[in-house]
# Entry
Amino acid sequence: MNSQRAHYWFVSPALILMLLIFGIPIAIAIFLSFTDYSLGNKTFEFVGFENYFKIFTRSSYEKMWGATLRYVIVVVPLTVGLGLGAALLINSITRFSEIYKTIYFLPVMATLMAMAIVWQVMLHPTAGSINRLLSSGCEIDYIYNLFTLSFVGQEASESWYGSICNGNMPNWLGDKKYAIWVVCFVGVWQGFGFNMVLYLAGLTSVSRELYMAAEMDGAKSGWERFKLVTWPALGPTTVFVVTISFIKAFQVFDIVEAFYGFGSAGPSKTAYVMMFAIFEKGIKQNLIGVGAAISVIFLILVLSITLIQRFLVERKVHYS
Amino acid sequence: MNYDIGQPIKHFLLILGAIIVILPFYSMISYSFQSQGEIETGKNSKGEKAGFLGTQEKIVDQFCFKSNTPEKEEVNSLMLKMPGKTEREVYNILLKNVTENCLKKPAFMNYTQAFTKAPLLRYLLNGVIVTASIFLLQVVVALPAAYALAKLRFVGREFIFTLVLLCLLIPIHAVALPLYIMLAKLGLTNSYAALIIPWTISVFGIFLMRQFFMTVPDDYIDAGRMDGMSEFSIIWRVMLPTAVPALLAFAIFSVVAHWNDYFWPRVVITGDPDLFTPPLGMRVFKQDTEGDLHGPMMAVAVTIVTPLIVAFLIAQKRFIEGITFSGMK
# Structure
């Protein structure tokens, strides 16, 4: 091999694949999003912005936005907050920190499809262990009083827990009151360990001297030290963690498929998240124009989040 | 060490969190040993608490029972050997035998059903084939490119690196639909190729290896060139050995992502069970059994989740490193 030319051989496979797997598909997606194309059809027509227009006006897509935004707005702050909280706690304890770290990281490694199905079994309205636990609490006076808030004078039977004890066991996955929030819960359960590890890595770079300096300046309480030293020092980590959590949250799919899937997106479509919509419209119903338009919107969302991240990084969120 | 009042509170909070995190793992393993009745009530047939392992009281395997229910001919032939008994009585004797033969311990029953009700071994094999092929191809594509971007000087290098950084921003979910159309047009859906091809390029892998190669001293490469090595053999015989730690981290990142991936197999595999990957097989198992065989379903879940979890527990540090490497982009 001529070493003068070697770089062509080295770079071209990657270059061709980048074109085939990212470049061309993006172009196709943008192009098709302006058509009414269906797989198998010989012809198609340009429909302008109609597909996009539908996505922002029709009620079936209102469900999609509702489910996606609920999931994102709940899961991002919780995975980031719990990730940070766990990291701070683990960083400040003197013993067993490795064990906690291992445990909290387990859901990140485990196949989400399998674990979501386990949650579903546990959340079964009549046979699940969660509802069994809830109902066994009804028979213990102090638990009943605590959860029905009757110890502060609330009417027990009117409270949420009171109605459960009266035999209205929650149908966690089948009731549209709960469905999307249970999906969120499993998302948080699975995701916060990953953020915790990133924060732990970030914490190792916070220097001891800064804490000493803060203490000399009169930052006596833990909260003040956190506000003065830890939080600013974790700036770059936080920006990154938030970005990646946003992108992951927009991609939620496995949990919905595990719970409902194969045709349904939860009671009254309350868990009709974006990826599910792309899959249902684009692949199952062969409405490729609409599916492509949702894909493009998704791409724009992800890119804007990343641009905001870059902007914040440029402005130097790190003060150290 | 000063006595710290905060420590017990911190441990209390962490233990509380740990219980919630572990709960589904505990339930999954426990259910995989229990009978349907124990799973549904939490109690055994005597009304006692079932416990982690269940009571392992033998129960009748319904599938075994159904496929062995006595036929008319069996009853008739036995009636000849037992004169004086009515057809009903003979039938009941036979039925009793079948029931006894089909009595099994729930743990044994769950795991045998997991492997026989669905081709679970095939799913696992597919998982291994797909994740291994993806990783190998990613390395074959990424290493030379990373080497060229880090150590060779040529026109357009900066441009290509910018392209890599740009592709790093694009999640595969955004291009899933057009990729599916392309594969469908080529007649490649429902094939290993469809499962593997879209992942052969890992821009993250290129980026990671490039950053790593930047730190390898040029002297190593020059020494290789002096020895008359081609650029190609420099990559595999000089650069690769130095890159083992980074490569290992990337391997973990790649294998975990693709063993657990559900979205892409769901898109391109539309019915051929011989091509199901473990998560897809799990989902279809649930569908086929209408979610009623909780014990066997949990046995499937345990089987799918265990390989990575065990590997993780053995090499935690490396795994956490490998997964958080994605935090570098």
About this structure: Chain B touches chain A through 95 residues (CB under 8 Å). Chain B has 18 helices and two strands.
